[in-house]
Amino acid sequence: VIPRLVIVGVGLLGGSVAKAARARGLARTIVGVGRDQTRLADALHDGALDQATTDLSVGLRGADLVILAAPVLTIERLLGSVASAVGPETLVTDVGSTKGSIVRAADTLSASRPFTFVGSHPMAGSERAGYAVARADLFDGATVIVTPTDATIPRATKEVSALWEGLGARVSHLDPGSHDRVVAAISHLPHLAAFALVAGAHRFEPPALRFAARGFRDTTRVAASDPVVWQEIFHGNRGALLASLRSFRDMLDEVERLVVADDVGALQAWLAEVKALRETVR
Amino acid sequence: VIPRLVIVGVGLLGGSVAKAARARGLARTIVGVGRDQTRLADALHDGALDQATTDLSVGLRGADLVILAAPVLTIERLLGSVASAVGPETLVTDVGSTKGSIVRAADTLSASRPFTFVGSHPMAGSERAGYAVARADLFDGATVIVTPTDATIPRATKEVSALWEGLGARVSHLDPGSHDRVVAAISHLPHLAAFALVAGAHRFEPPALRFAARGFRDTTRVAASDPVVWQEIFHGNRGALLASLRSFRDMLDEVERLVVADDVGALQAWLAEVKALRETVR
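C-alpha coordinates for the assembled complex are given below, as produced in the milestone run.
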Protein backbone atom coordinates (compact mmCIF):
# COMPACT_ATOMS: atom_id res chain seq x y z
CA VAL A 1 0.00 0.00 0.00
CA ILE A 2 1.33 3.44 -1.02
CA PRO A 3 1.04 5.73 2.03
CA ARG A 4 0.58 8.93 0.01
CA LEU A 5 -0.22 8.88 -3.73
CA VAL A 6 -0.25 12.29 -5.41
CA ILE A 7 -1.92 12.74 -8.78
CA VAL A 8 -1.18 15.95 -10.66
CA GLY A 9 -3.99 16.46 -13.15
CA VAL A 10 -7.29 14.79 -12.28
CA GLY A 11 -8.79 14.28 -15.76
CA LEU A 12 -9.56 11.05 -17.62
CA LEU A 13 -6.23 9.37 -16.83
CA GLY A 14 -5.45 10.93 -13.44
CA GLY A 15 -9.04 10.49 -12.30
CA SER A 16 -9.03 6.87 -13.40
CA VAL A 17 -5.79 6.24 -11.46
CA ALA A 18 -7.47 7.73 -8.37
CA LYS A 19 -10.64 5.68 -8.80
CA ALA A 20 -8.80 2.44 -9.56
CA ALA A 21 -6.29 2.90 -6.72
CA ARG A 22 -9.18 3.58 -4.34
CA ALA A 23 -11.25 0.62 -5.56
CA ARG A 24 -8.28 -1.72 -5.27
CA GLY A 25 -7.01 -0.32 -1.95
CA LEU A 26 -3.56 0.48 -3.37
CA ALA A 27 -3.05 3.78 -1.54
CA ARG A 28 -3.81 5.01 1.95
CA THR A 29 -4.14 8.71 1.12
CA ILE A 30 -4.84 9.96 -2.41
CA VAL A 31 -4.11 13.60 -3.12
CA GLY A 32 -5.24 15.40 -6.26
CA VAL A 33 -3.57 18.51 -7.63
CA GLY A 34 -5.45 20.52 -10.25
CA ARG A 35 -5.95 24.00 -11.59
CA ASP A 36 -9.63 24.25 -10.73
CA GLN A 37 -10.91 23.56 -7.22
CA THR A 38 -14.51 23.08 -8.34
CA ARG A 39 -13.51 20.33 -10.75
CA LEU A 40 -11.44 18.65 -8.01
CA ALA A 41 -14.54 18.80 -5.79
CA ASP A 42 -16.25 16.10 -7.88
CA ALA A 43 -13.40 13.68 -7.21
CA LEU A 44 -13.42 14.53 -3.49
CA HIS A 45 -17.17 14.04 -3.38
CA ASP A 46 -16.86 10.65 -5.12
CA GLY A 47 -14.34 9.53 -2.53
CA ALA A 48 -11.69 9.07 -5.25
CA LEU A 49 -9.54 11.74 -3.57
CA ASP A 50 -8.91 12.30 0.13
CA GLN A 51 -7.39 15.72 -0.38
CA ALA A 52 -7.34 18.19 -3.23
CA THR A 53 -5.36 21.34 -3.81
CA THR A 54 -4.53 23.80 -6.56
CA ASP A 55 -1.09 24.41 -4.99
CA LEU A 56 1.48 22.00 -6.43
CA SER A 57 3.98 22.39 -3.59
CA VAL A 58 1.28 21.75 -0.98
CA GLY A 59 0.12 18.69 -2.88
CA LEU A 60 3.59 17.22 -3.18
CA ARG A 61 4.36 17.48 0.56
CA GLY A 62 5.15 14.02 1.95
CA ALA A 63 4.40 12.28 -1.35
CA ASP A 64 5.59 8.69 -1.73
CA LEU A 65 4.57 8.36 -5.38
CA VAL A 66 3.67 11.18 -7.77
CA ILE A 67 1.90 10.69 -11.10
CA LEU A 68 1.98 13.58 -13.56
CA ALA A 69 -1.24 13.10 -15.52
CA ALA A 70 -1.19 16.06 -17.89
CA PRO A 71 -0.54 16.67 -21.59
CA VAL A 72 3.07 16.12 -22.71
CA LEU A 73 4.14 19.79 -22.80
CA THR A 74 2.61 20.43 -19.37
CA ILE A 75 4.45 17.43 -17.94
CA GLU A 76 7.74 18.79 -19.30
CA ARG A 77 7.00 22.17 -17.70
CA LEU A 78 6.04 20.57 -14.35
CA LEU A 79 9.14 18.38 -14.02
CA GLY A 80 11.46 21.14 -12.75
CA SER A 81 9.08 22.24 -9.98
CA VAL A 82 8.44 18.65 -8.95
CA ALA A 83 12.16 17.83 -8.85
CA SER A 84 12.76 20.85 -6.59
CA ALA A 85 9.90 19.96 -4.25
CA VAL A 86 10.48 16.27 -3.59
CA GLY A 87 13.35 14.22 -2.18
CA PRO A 88 14.99 11.14 -3.71
CA GLU A 89 12.72 8.83 -1.70
CA THR A 90 9.67 10.09 -3.67
CA LEU A 91 9.03 8.14 -6.87
CA VAL A 92 7.80 10.21 -9.81
CA THR A 93 6.22 8.99 -13.02
CA ASP A 94 3.94 10.41 -15.70
CA VAL A 95 1.37 9.33 -18.31
CA GLY A 96 2.68 11.24 -21.34
CA SER A 97 2.05 9.67 -24.73
CA THR A 98 5.55 10.50 -25.99
CA LYS A 99 8.54 9.70 -23.83
CA GLY A 100 11.82 10.86 -25.40
CA SER A 101 11.65 14.53 -24.44
CA ILE A 102 10.08 13.93 -21.01
CA VAL A 103 12.62 11.30 -20.00
CA ARG A 104 15.52 13.41 -21.31
CA ALA A 105 14.29 16.35 -19.23
CA ALA A 106 13.99 14.14 -16.13
CA ASP A 107 17.42 12.59 -16.68
CA THR A 108 18.93 16.08 -16.98
CA LEU A 109 17.28 17.11 -13.71
CA SER A 110 18.43 13.99 -11.90
CA ALA A 111 22.02 14.60 -13.00
CA SER A 112 22.14 17.72 -10.78
CA ARG A 113 20.06 16.57 -7.80
CA PRO A 114 18.56 13.32 -6.49
CA PHE A 115 15.33 12.83 -8.45
CA THR A 116 13.77 9.39 -8.80
CA PHE A 117 11.83 9.31 -12.06
CA VAL A 118 10.73 6.70 -14.58
CA GLY A 119 8.41 7.38 -17.52
CA SER A 120 5.10 5.58 -18.10
CA HIS A 121 2.63 5.55 -20.96
CA PRO A 122 -0.70 3.91 -20.17
CA MET A 123 -2.18 3.00 -23.56
CA ALA A 124 -5.74 3.59 -22.49
CA GLY A 125 -7.68 6.59 -23.55
CA SER A 126 -10.71 7.87 -25.23
CA GLU A 127 -11.78 10.57 -27.62
CA ARG A 128 -13.35 12.13 -24.53
CA ALA A 129 -11.45 13.89 -21.78
CA GLY A 130 -12.00 15.05 -18.22
CA TYR A 131 -12.75 13.60 -14.81
CA ALA A 132 -16.39 13.00 -15.78
CA VAL A 133 -15.30 10.09 -18.04
CA ALA A 134 -12.71 8.65 -15.60
CA ARG A 135 -13.35 4.99 -14.74
CA ALA A 136 -12.01 2.62 -12.08
CA ASP A 137 -11.61 -0.07 -14.76
CA LEU A 138 -9.83 2.07 -17.39
CA PHE A 139 -6.55 0.17 -16.98
CA ASP A 140 -8.08 -3.31 -16.75
CA GLY A 141 -6.21 -5.32 -19.35
CA ALA A 142 -4.67 -2.16 -20.88
CA THR A 143 -1.00 -2.05 -21.78
CA VAL A 144 1.28 0.36 -19.93
CA ILE A 145 4.74 0.93 -21.35
CA VAL A 146 7.30 1.87 -18.68
CA THR A 147 10.46 3.42 -20.13
CA PRO A 148 13.57 3.07 -17.93
CA THR A 149 16.96 4.27 -19.18
CA ASP A 150 20.48 3.44 -18.00
CA ALA A 151 20.13 6.35 -15.57
CA THR A 152 16.91 5.06 -14.00
CA ILE A 153 17.03 3.81 -10.41
CA PRO A 154 15.80 0.16 -10.54
CA ARG A 155 13.50 0.64 -7.55
CA ALA A 156 11.57 3.29 -9.53
CA THR A 157 11.00 0.90 -12.45
CA LYS A 158 9.99 -1.90 -10.11
CA GLU A 159 7.55 0.07 -7.95
CA VAL A 160 5.99 2.08 -10.77
CA SER A 161 5.47 -1.13 -12.77
CA ALA A 162 3.91 -2.73 -9.68
CA LEU A 163 1.51 0.21 -9.34
CA TRP A 164 0.25 -0.17 -12.94
CA GLU A 165 -0.07 -3.92 -12.51
CA GLY A 166 -1.98 -3.27 -9.30
CA LEU A 167 -4.33 -1.05 -11.31
CA GLY A 168 -5.03 -3.99 -13.65
CA ALA A 169 -2.66 -3.22 -16.54
CA ARG A 170 -0.11 -5.36 -18.36
CA VAL A 171 3.29 -3.67 -18.16
CA SER A 172 6.00 -3.75 -20.83
CA HIS A 173 9.39 -2.06 -20.68
CA LEU A 174 10.90 -0.21 -23.65
CA ASP A 175 13.63 2.40 -23.84
CA PRO A 176 12.13 5.86 -24.56
CA GLY A 177 13.41 5.92 -28.16
CA SER A 178 11.85 2.55 -29.05
CA HIS A 179 8.66 3.62 -27.29
CA ASP A 180 8.40 6.72 -29.44
CA ARG A 181 8.98 4.71 -32.65
CA VAL A 182 6.37 2.16 -31.56
CA VAL A 183 3.72 4.80 -30.90
CA ALA A 184 4.64 6.60 -34.12
CA ALA A 185 4.06 3.36 -36.04
CA ILE A 186 0.85 2.22 -34.35
CA SER A 187 -0.78 5.52 -33.46
CA HIS A 188 0.68 8.78 -34.73
CA LEU A 189 1.35 7.74 -38.34
CA PRO A 190 -2.05 5.97 -38.63
CA HIS A 191 -3.68 9.19 -37.39
CA LEU A 192 -1.71 11.23 -39.92
CA ALA A 193 -2.65 8.76 -42.69
CA ALA A 194 -6.32 8.91 -41.70
CA PHE A 195 -6.29 12.72 -41.82
CA ALA A 196 -4.60 12.56 -45.25
CA LEU A 197 -7.07 9.95 -46.55
CA VAL A 198 -10.04 12.16 -45.68
CA ALA A 199 -8.50 15.34 -47.10
CA GLY A 200 -7.19 13.39 -50.11
CA ALA A 201 -10.54 11.75 -50.95
CA HIS A 202 -12.23 15.15 -50.93
CA ARG A 203 -9.59 16.70 -53.16
CA PHE A 204 -9.27 13.73 -55.55
CA GLU A 205 -12.99 13.33 -56.30
CA PRO A 206 -15.17 15.87 -54.46
CA PRO A 207 -18.36 13.75 -54.23
CA ALA A 208 -16.38 10.82 -52.77
CA LEU A 209 -17.08 11.44 -49.07
CA ARG A 210 -20.83 11.29 -49.71
CA PHE A 211 -20.41 7.61 -50.56
CA ALA A 212 -18.19 6.63 -47.64
CA ALA A 213 -19.29 3.34 -46.11
CA ARG A 214 -18.31 1.31 -43.07
CA GLY A 215 -14.74 0.52 -44.20
CA PHE A 216 -13.92 4.20 -44.72
CA ARG A 217 -15.62 5.20 -41.48
CA ASP A 218 -13.52 2.70 -39.51
CA THR A 219 -10.28 3.49 -41.31
CA THR A 220 -10.69 7.23 -40.76
CA ARG A 221 -12.56 7.30 -37.44
CA VAL A 222 -9.48 8.81 -35.75
CA ALA A 223 -9.50 11.73 -38.21
CA ALA A 224 -12.27 13.23 -36.06
CA SER A 225 -9.79 13.58 -33.19
CA ASP A 226 -9.07 16.88 -31.50
CA PRO A 227 -6.83 19.18 -33.63
CA VAL A 228 -5.11 20.80 -30.63
CA VAL A 229 -4.29 17.48 -28.99
CA TRP A 230 -2.96 16.04 -32.26
CA GLN A 231 -0.93 19.06 -33.20
CA GLU A 232 0.81 18.67 -29.81
CA ILE A 233 1.34 14.94 -30.29
CA PHE A 234 2.70 15.36 -33.84
CA HIS A 235 4.99 18.09 -32.49
CA GLY A 236 6.05 16.08 -29.44
CA ASN A 237 6.98 12.99 -31.41
CA ARG A 238 8.15 14.78 -34.53
CA GLY A 239 11.39 12.86 -35.04
CA ALA A 240 9.90 9.38 -34.86
CA LEU A 241 6.76 10.47 -36.73
CA LEU A 242 8.74 11.84 -39.68
CA ALA A 243 10.93 8.71 -39.75
CA SER A 244 7.86 6.46 -39.76
CA LEU A 245 6.28 8.62 -42.48
CA ARG A 246 9.36 8.19 -44.69
CA SER A 247 9.22 4.45 -44.10
CA PHE A 248 5.47 4.44 -44.92
CA ARG A 249 6.12 6.27 -48.19
CA ASP A 250 8.78 3.71 -49.15
CA MET A 251 6.19 1.01 -48.46
CA LEU A 252 3.61 2.82 -50.65
CA ASP A 253 6.21 3.01 -53.43
CA GLU A 254 6.70 -0.75 -53.20
CA VAL A 255 2.97 -1.42 -53.31
CA GLU A 256 2.62 0.92 -56.25
CA ARG A 257 5.26 -1.09 -58.12
CA LEU A 258 3.36 -4.30 -57.31
CA VAL A 259 0.11 -2.82 -58.65
CA VAL A 260 1.79 -1.40 -61.76
CA ALA A 261 3.60 -4.68 -62.49
CA ASP A 262 0.21 -6.42 -62.34
CA ASP A 263 1.87 -9.64 -61.18
CA VAL A 264 -1.09 -11.50 -59.69
CA GLY A 265 1.02 -13.90 -57.62
CA ALA A 266 3.37 -11.28 -56.18
CA LEU A 267 0.56 -8.95 -55.13
CA GLN A 268 -1.54 -11.77 -53.65
CA ALA A 269 1.53 -13.06 -51.76
CA TRP A 270 2.21 -9.62 -50.29
CA LEU A 271 -1.45 -9.12 -49.31
CA ALA A 272 -1.50 -12.57 -47.67
CA GLU A 273 1.68 -11.74 -45.73
CA VAL A 274 0.15 -8.48 -44.46
CA LYS A 275 -3.13 -10.24 -43.57
CA ALA A 276 -1.12 -12.75 -41.48
CA LEU A 277 0.71 -9.88 -39.74
CA ARG A 278 -2.60 -8.11 -39.11
CA GLU A 279 -3.99 -11.26 -37.54
CA THR A 280 -1.23 -11.18 -34.91
CA VAL A 281 -2.85 -7.96 -33.63
CA ARG A 282 -5.22 -8.90 -30.85
CA VAL B 1 -43.57 -6.79 -59.98
CA ILE B 2 -40.85 -8.34 -62.13
CA PRO B 3 -42.29 -11.46 -63.78
CA ARG B 4 -38.98 -13.33 -63.99
CA LEU B 5 -35.88 -12.18 -62.06
CA VAL B 6 -32.71 -14.11 -62.81
CA ILE B 7 -29.75 -13.93 -60.42
CA VAL B 8 -26.44 -15.24 -61.74
CA GLY B 9 -24.30 -16.06 -58.70
CA VAL B 10 -26.20 -16.78 -55.47
CA GLY B 11 -23.64 -15.74 -52.85
CA LEU B 12 -23.78 -12.92 -50.30
CA LEU B 13 -25.02 -10.28 -52.76
CA GLY B 14 -27.04 -12.45 -55.16
CA GLY B 15 -28.57 -14.40 -52.28
CA SER B 16 -29.48 -11.17 -50.51
CA VAL B 17 -31.15 -9.84 -53.67
CA ALA B 18 -33.19 -13.07 -53.84
CA LYS B 19 -34.18 -12.96 -50.16
CA ALA B 20 -35.02 -9.23 -50.23
CA ALA B 21 -36.98 -9.47 -53.50
CA ARG B 22 -38.92 -12.41 -52.06
CA ALA B 23 -39.58 -10.69 -48.73
CA ARG B 24 -40.78 -7.52 -50.46
CA GLY B 25 -42.76 -9.32 -53.19
CA LEU B 26 -40.80 -7.61 -55.98
CA ALA B 27 -40.64 -10.61 -58.32
CA ARG B 28 -43.03 -13.36 -59.30
CA THR B 29 -40.46 -16.00 -60.22
CA ILE B 30 -36.87 -15.87 -58.94
CA VAL B 31 -34.34 -17.99 -60.77
CA GLY B 32 -30.82 -18.67 -59.47
CA VAL B 33 -27.90 -19.66 -61.68
CA GLY B 34 -24.81 -21.06 -59.99
CA ARG B 35 -21.92 -23.41 -60.49
CA ASP B 36 -22.86 -25.80 -57.69
CA GLN B 37 -26.32 -27.36 -57.47
CA THR B 38 -25.93 -28.34 -53.80
CA ARG B 39 -25.24 -24.75 -52.81
CA LEU B 40 -28.23 -23.56 -54.84
CA ALA B 41 -30.33 -26.14 -52.97
CA ASP B 42 -30.09 -24.10 -49.76
CA ALA B 43 -31.65 -21.10 -51.48
CA LEU B 44 -34.40 -23.26 -53.00
CA HIS B 45 -35.06 -24.83 -49.64
CA ASP B 46 -35.30 -21.37 -48.00
CA GLY B 47 -37.85 -20.31 -50.59
CA ALA B 48 -35.54 -17.49 -51.77
CA LEU B 49 -35.40 -19.13 -55.22
CA ASP B 50 -38.21 -20.74 -57.20
CA GLN B 51 -35.87 -22.39 -59.69
CA ALA B 52 -32.17 -23.09 -59.76
CA THR B 53 -29.87 -24.26 -62.51
CA THR B 54 -26.19 -24.58 -63.27
CA ASP B 55 -26.88 -23.95 -66.97
CA LEU B 56 -26.68 -20.24 -67.76
CA SER B 57 -28.69 -20.42 -71.02
CA VAL B 58 -31.48 -22.37 -69.29
CA GLY B 59 -31.54 -19.86 -66.46
CA LEU B 60 -31.72 -16.85 -68.79
CA ARG B 61 -34.71 -18.17 -70.77
CA GLY B 62 -37.59 -15.70 -70.53
CA ALA B 63 -35.74 -13.40 -68.13
CA ASP B 64 -37.14 -9.90 -67.60
CA LEU B 65 -34.32 -8.68 -65.40
CA VAL B 66 -30.91 -10.31 -64.96
CA ILE B 67 -28.47 -9.49 -62.15
CA LEU B 68 -24.90 -10.66 -62.55
CA ALA B 69 -23.77 -11.12 -58.96
CA ALA B 70 -20.24 -12.41 -59.40
CA PRO B 71 -16.71 -11.04 -58.97
CA VAL B 72 -15.71 -8.36 -61.49
CA LEU B 73 -13.65 -10.57 -63.81
CA THR B 74 -16.38 -13.21 -63.91
CA ILE B 75 -18.97 -10.56 -64.76
CA GLU B 76 -16.81 -9.39 -67.66
CA ARG B 77 -16.51 -12.99 -68.88
CA LEU B 78 -20.26 -13.62 -68.54
CA LEU B 79 -21.39 -10.52 -70.44
CA GLY B 80 -20.84 -11.96 -73.92
CA SER B 81 -22.86 -15.12 -73.22
CA VAL B 82 -25.62 -13.12 -71.60
CA ALA B 83 -25.79 -10.64 -74.50
CA SER B 84 -26.11 -13.57 -76.95
CA ALA B 85 -28.81 -15.30 -74.92
CA VAL B 86 -31.23 -12.44 -74.20
CA GLY B 87 -33.20 -10.01 -76.31
CA PRO B 88 -33.33 -6.20 -75.98
CA GLU B 89 -36.45 -6.42 -73.79
CA THR B 90 -34.41 -8.12 -71.04
CA LEU B 91 -32.74 -5.66 -68.66
CA VAL B 92 -29.29 -6.66 -67.46
CA THR B 93 -27.32 -5.23 -64.56
CA ASP B 94 -24.52 -6.38 -62.27
CA VAL B 95 -23.10 -5.81 -58.79
CA GLY B 96 -19.41 -5.38 -59.66
CA SER B 97 -17.38 -3.12 -57.38
CA THR B 98 -15.57 -1.47 -60.30
CA LYS B 99 -17.54 -0.22 -63.25
CA GLY B 100 -15.30 1.18 -66.02
CA SER B 101 -14.25 -2.10 -67.63
CA ILE B 102 -17.63 -3.81 -67.18
CA VAL B 103 -19.59 -0.92 -68.65
CA ARG B 104 -17.12 -0.55 -71.54
CA ALA B 105 -17.51 -4.26 -72.32
CA ALA B 106 -21.31 -3.98 -72.22
CA ASP B 107 -21.32 -0.85 -74.38
CA THR B 108 -19.11 -2.62 -76.94
CA LEU B 109 -21.54 -5.57 -77.01
CA SER B 110 -24.58 -3.34 -77.37
CA ALA B 111 -22.98 -1.55 -80.34
CA SER B 112 -23.26 -4.74 -82.39
CA ARG B 113 -26.59 -6.15 -81.12
CA PRO B 114 -29.52 -4.95 -79.00
CA PHE B 115 -28.41 -5.41 -75.39
CA THR B 116 -30.02 -3.45 -72.59
CA PHE B 117 -27.47 -3.03 -69.82
CA VAL B 118 -26.76 -0.58 -67.02
CA GLY B 119 -24.11 -1.09 -64.32
CA SER B 120 -24.84 -1.14 -60.58
CA HIS B 121 -22.67 -1.20 -57.50
CA PRO B 122 -24.50 -1.96 -54.26
CA MET B 123 -22.20 -0.65 -51.51
CA ALA B 124 -23.12 -3.33 -49.04
CA GLY B 125 -20.89 -6.18 -48.22
CA SER B 126 -19.07 -7.99 -45.55
CA GLU B 127 -15.72 -9.62 -44.91
CA ARG B 128 -17.70 -12.86 -45.19
CA ALA B 129 -18.97 -14.38 -48.42
CA GLY B 130 -21.47 -16.99 -49.58
CA TYR B 131 -25.19 -17.61 -49.50
CA ALA B 132 -24.99 -18.60 -45.82
CA VAL B 133 -24.47 -14.93 -44.86
CA ALA B 134 -27.05 -13.50 -47.32
CA ARG B 135 -29.72 -11.38 -45.61
CA ALA B 136 -33.07 -9.97 -46.71
CA ASP B 137 -32.13 -6.63 -45.10
CA LEU B 138 -28.63 -6.30 -46.61
CA PHE B 139 -29.67 -3.36 -48.82
CA ASP B 140 -31.78 -1.58 -46.20
CA GLY B 141 -30.41 1.96 -46.15
CA ALA B 142 -27.36 0.95 -48.22
CA THR B 143 -26.19 3.07 -51.12
CA VAL B 144 -26.32 1.66 -54.64
CA ILE B 145 -24.50 3.55 -57.37
CA VAL B 146 -26.06 3.03 -60.81
CA THR B 147 -23.74 4.03 -63.66
CA PRO B 148 -25.51 4.98 -66.91
CA THR B 149 -23.52 6.28 -69.89
CA ASP B 150 -24.61 8.21 -72.96
CA ALA B 151 -25.22 4.82 -74.63
CA THR B 152 -27.52 3.56 -71.87
CA ILE B 153 -31.22 3.12 -72.64
CA PRO B 154 -33.08 5.33 -70.12
CA ARG B 155 -35.60 2.56 -69.32
CA ALA B 156 -32.72 0.39 -68.05
CA THR B 157 -31.52 3.10 -65.67
CA LYS B 158 -35.05 3.77 -64.47
CA GLU B 159 -36.10 0.17 -63.86
CA VAL B 160 -32.82 -1.00 -62.38
CA SER B 161 -32.80 2.00 -60.02
CA ALA B 162 -36.39 1.18 -59.06
CA LEU B 163 -35.40 -2.41 -58.27
CA TRP B 164 -32.64 -1.31 -55.86
CA GLU B 165 -34.97 1.22 -54.24
CA GLY B 166 -37.55 -1.55 -53.92
CA LEU B 167 -34.90 -3.60 -52.11
CA GLY B 168 -34.49 -0.76 -49.59
CA ALA B 169 -31.42 1.02 -50.97
CA ARG B 170 -30.72 4.67 -51.73
CA VAL B 171 -29.72 5.03 -55.37
CA SER B 172 -27.23 7.53 -56.78
CA HIS B 173 -26.19 7.90 -60.40
CA LEU B 174 -22.56 8.46 -61.43
CA ASP B 175 -20.80 7.93 -64.74
CA PRO B 176 -18.56 4.83 -64.57
CA GLY B 177 -15.33 6.88 -64.50
CA SER B 178 -16.43 9.03 -61.55
CA HIS B 179 -17.69 5.89 -59.83
CA ASP B 180 -14.28 4.26 -60.11
CA ARG B 181 -12.53 7.36 -58.76
CA VAL B 182 -15.01 7.57 -55.86
CA VAL B 183 -14.48 3.93 -54.85
CA ALA B 184 -10.71 4.32 -55.27
CA ALA B 185 -10.80 7.27 -52.85
CA ILE B 186 -13.14 5.84 -50.22
CA SER B 187 -12.38 2.13 -50.42
CA HIS B 188 -9.48 0.90 -52.54
CA LEU B 189 -6.87 3.45 -51.48
CA PRO B 190 -7.87 3.20 -47.78
CA HIS B 191 -7.45 -0.58 -48.08
CA LEU B 192 -4.06 -0.15 -49.72
CA ALA B 193 -3.04 2.35 -47.02
CA ALA B 194 -4.19 -0.01 -44.26
CA PHE B 195 -2.14 -2.86 -45.76
CA ALA B 196 0.89 -0.53 -45.99
CA LEU B 197 0.42 0.74 -42.40
CA VAL B 198 0.49 -2.82 -41.03
CA ALA B 199 3.49 -3.90 -43.13
CA GLY B 200 5.20 -0.58 -42.47
CA ALA B 201 4.74 -0.69 -38.69
CA HIS B 202 6.27 -4.15 -38.57
CA ARG B 203 9.25 -3.12 -40.69
CA PHE B 204 9.82 0.26 -39.01
CA GLU B 205 9.88 -1.03 -35.42
CA PRO B 206 9.37 -4.80 -35.19
CA PRO B 207 7.78 -4.91 -31.70
CA ALA B 208 5.24 -2.24 -32.71
CA LEU B 209 2.33 -4.53 -33.59
CA ARG B 210 2.44 -6.10 -30.11
CA PHE B 211 1.34 -2.73 -28.72
CA ALA B 212 -1.43 -2.00 -31.20
CA ALA B 213 -4.53 -0.65 -29.47
CA ARG B 214 -8.06 0.21 -30.54
CA GLY B 215 -7.15 3.07 -32.88
CA PHE B 216 -4.76 0.91 -34.87
CA ARG B 217 -7.18 -2.02 -34.91
CA ASP B 218 -9.94 0.19 -36.38
CA THR B 219 -7.67 1.95 -38.85
CA THR B 220 -6.27 -1.33 -40.18
CA ARG B 221 -9.25 -3.67 -39.73
CA VAL B 222 -9.63 -3.92 -43.51
CA ALA B 223 -6.03 -5.17 -43.83
CA ALA B 224 -7.37 -8.58 -42.77
CA SER B 225 -9.42 -8.72 -46.00
CA ASP B 226 -9.09 -11.56 -48.48
CA PRO B 227 -5.88 -11.31 -50.59
CA VAL B 228 -7.43 -12.88 -53.71
CA VAL B 229 -10.45 -10.56 -53.65
CA TRP B 230 -8.27 -7.50 -53.12
CA GLN B 231 -5.69 -8.40 -55.72
CA GLU B 232 -8.63 -8.56 -58.18
CA ILE B 233 -10.06 -5.24 -57.01
CA PHE B 234 -6.69 -3.48 -57.16
CA HIS B 235 -6.22 -4.94 -60.64
CA GLY B 236 -9.74 -4.08 -61.77
CA ASN B 237 -9.54 -0.45 -60.70
CA ARG B 238 -5.85 0.01 -61.36
CA GLY B 239 -6.08 3.32 -63.22
CA ALA B 240 -8.16 5.16 -60.62
CA LEU B 241 -6.31 3.47 -57.73
CA LEU B 242 -2.90 4.61 -58.98
CA ALA B 243 -4.21 8.13 -59.61
CA SER B 244 -5.67 8.31 -56.09
CA LEU B 245 -2.39 6.93 -54.67
CA ARG B 246 -0.41 9.68 -56.37
CA SER B 247 -2.84 12.25 -54.99
CA PHE B 248 -2.52 10.68 -51.50
CA ARG B 249 1.28 10.90 -51.67
CA ASP B 250 1.07 14.58 -52.60
CA MET B 251 -1.15 15.06 -49.57
CA LEU B 252 1.36 13.24 -47.33
CA ASP B 253 4.12 15.51 -48.68
CA GLU B 254 2.05 18.54 -47.71
CA VAL B 255 1.42 17.19 -44.21
CA GLU B 256 5.10 16.38 -43.84
CA ARG B 257 5.94 19.99 -44.68
CA LEU B 258 3.42 21.17 -42.06
CA VAL B 259 4.99 18.89 -39.41
CA VAL B 260 8.55 19.90 -40.37
CA ALA B 261 7.67 23.63 -40.36
CA ASP B 262 6.33 23.16 -36.82
CA ASP B 263 3.88 26.01 -37.34
CA VAL B 264 1.35 25.34 -34.57
CA GLY B 265 -1.42 27.43 -36.12
CA ALA B 266 -1.09 26.06 -39.66
CA LEU B 267 -1.08 22.43 -38.54
CA GLN B 268 -4.01 22.94 -36.15
CA ALA B 269 -5.95 24.73 -38.87
CA TRP B 270 -5.39 21.87 -41.32
CA LEU B 271 -6.37 19.24 -38.72
CA ALA B 272 -9.51 21.21 -37.88
CA GLU B 273 -10.42 21.43 -41.56
CA VAL B 274 -10.02 17.66 -41.96
CA LYS B 275 -12.01 16.99 -38.79
CA ALA B 276 -14.85 19.08 -40.20
CA LEU B 277 -14.70 17.16 -43.50
CA ARG B 278 -14.68 13.86 -41.59
CA GLU B 279 -17.75 14.94 -39.68
CA THR B 280 -19.68 15.25 -42.95
CA VAL B 281 -19.31 11.46 -43.28
CA ARG B 282 -22.41 9.87 -41.83
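Residues 12 and 208 of chain A are 36 Å apart (CA to CA). DSSP finds eleven helices and nine strands in chain A. Further analysis is deferred to the final report.
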